[in-house]
Amino acid sequence: MWAEEALKDPETAKSLQTGNEEFDQLVAVVLTGGMIVGAAIACFLDNTIPGTDKERGMTNYKDANKACSDKPLLKKIYYEPGIELLAQRFPMLRKLPFVNN
Question: In whole angstroms, what is the distance from residue 24 CA to residue 74 CA?
Fold first, then answer.
């Protein structure tokens, strides 16, 4: 990736030094990880390019969840303990599409 090549260059590596070695390492890992860069780009594009829920596929997701008659099975399959604890503490998180209702 471009970040790996940039960090190999001594001049670029010096420009990344903030004085905190742990933070510098964190930034280097984040910039060289393809998945995190892809996720950041996807998040940016998802929030800036207009589109309806149907165009984004969210209505299909919601309809499929509503169509399943075995709600205990759905809860068992999609139960995430950490997210569930946060959702119990902060009910507004239930509005997010990936948090079970």
Answer: 42
